[in-house]
Write a structure and sequence with these properties.
This protein is mostly helical. It has a single domain, classed as NCX, central ion-binding region (A middle domain of Talin 1), CATH 1.20.1420. The protein is built from 16 helices and four strands. It starts with a helix and ends in a 7-residue tail after the last helix. The C terminus is likely disordered.
């Protein structure tokens, strides 16, 4: 128990510089400010992750699950919603591009780096060349496929509007209802590692008190840190001469995704790779539904009336690439296994798009063309992989559409 409180104390201590700078109104250099609030967001996210991992064993109702799901994605939502709000408050400004950049970057980082990372760690730890999923994971795969396919509707419209919000939020809550019908407590208890495992050993009343305090404090830190982090990131790009768009697309999501990825790494090293991969798939569903769905709402609030976030040629291709990558990743999961070869394929293609983005960072026409070609490569590979896994696809469709017993 002593180690638990030391971990919590260290995480809280790491957030204090950010709180002090924000409340005292100090104006530091953009790079220093970015680092301070990056650490604050990372630490707050870790506190949330520990609390949520411990709380999940007590969760059975869909509403409670929804609240927990919203809490876990607060760091990412806070930054992207801030950019979306500013995009509405300053129509036609660079914030419009930043809102889409942060969202697409977070999505592609998760699939292109986090998924392969846990497969590689599991291979290193156990020498097994792949992670096996359970039959109940077809629910996650099905809803991720549904939200990924809907993303192409947004690409065709070249905008994200309130109608998309309604559809995506509906998909998310339908997903929550579906997973709440299954018996998941055993899997969650098995997945407890690190501080969350120590937390579950405390009496329930103490657990609830600590979890609530951690959640409230972390939410306070995140809401306090989102604006200065988002603005200092833009200023850092200007001062260093880096492309601001790329910094927001790739650096900002690291702060929001890092806590989740760290927990998944701990699970994998504890030889619980299925729990880790399942959680990452669920996180991707959150991003493709709630995160995208919240963007038009934040934009409309900033605009002062109902509106939609426009996607220009660059943003449209970024969204297209993100959707194509998502479908390719799903095709690799059709047989309920993410192999080492599949992990290398996801990582290699992600690194290619990353290199392309930085090579053509100041040449938008070339960037658009290369992103388009890469998107079609993803889709072509999706067709090939799906063809070879067509039996798995038919089995997955049958199991996803037909209600299964709670116990598998």
């Amino acid at each position: 128990m002593k180690r638990l409180f030391i971990n919590i104390a260290l995480a809280i201590a790491a957030t204090l510089p950010g709180i002090f700078v924000r409340l005292a109104g100090f104006h530091l250099g953009p790079i220093s400010t970015t680092i301070i609030f990056f650490i604050a967001l990372l630490s707050a996210g870790l506190l949330l992750s520990w609390g949520v991992e411990a709380a999940e064993k007590h969760v059975a109702k869909g509403l409670a699950i929804a609240v927990l799901a919203l809490i876990t994605v607060l760091p990412e939502y806070a930054v992207d919603i801030y950019y979306s709000y500013q995009a509405g408050n300053h129509p036609g400004s660079e914030y419009v591009g930043f809102a889409a950049a942060n969202m697409t970057g977070a999505n592609r980082l998760l699939v292109g780096m986090a998924w392969p990372l846990i497969v590689l760690l599991y291979w290193w730890r156990s020498k097994k060349k792949g992670i096996e999923l359970h039959r109940e994971n077809i629910t996650e795969i099905g809803f991720l496929a549904l939200s990924s396919l809907y993303a192409f509707v947004i690409v065709l419209k070249s905008r994200i509007d309130i109608f998309d919000t309604i559809v995506l939020v509906a998909i998310y809550f339908l997903y929550l209802w579906r997973v709440s019908k299954g018996a998941r407590e055993e899997a969650v208890e098995e997945a407890e590692v690190g501080p969350s495992a120590a937390l579950t050993k405390l009496p329930k009343q103490k657990q609830y008190l600590i979890i609530i305090c951690m959640a409230v404090y972390a939410a306070f830190v995140i809401l306090l840190s989102a604006e200065p982090f988002a603005e200092s990131l833009i200023a850092s790009g200007e001062s260093l001469g880096f492309n601001k768009f790329l910094l927001i697309q790739w650096l900002a999501p690291l702060a929001s995704e890092a806590p989740t990825v760290i927990v998944m790494i701990l699970m994998t090293l504890a030889l619980l790779p299925t729990s880790a991969l399942s959680a990452l798939i669920s996180d991707k569903i959150n991003q493709w539904t709630l995160l995208v769905g919240m963007i038009p709402l934040a934009y409309s609030i900033g605009l002062g009336r109902m509106g939609h976030l426009p996607l220009d040629a660059r943003q449209g291709e970024e969204f297209f690439l993100t959707a194509a990558q998502s479908l390719f990743a799903l095709s690799l999961l059709l047989c309920l296994r993410l192999s080492l070869k599949s992990a290398f394929a996801l990582l290699a293609l992600f690194l290619v798009q990353l290199v392309i983005a930085f090579i053509y960072s100041n040449d938008e026409p070339k960037t658009i063309v290369t992103l388009t070609w890469l998107s079609w490569i993803y889709l072509a590979l999706t067709v090939v992989v799906t063809f070879f896994n067509r039996k798995c696809l038919m089995n997955a469709i049958t199991q996803w559409t037909i209600k299964k017993p709670d116990k598998i």
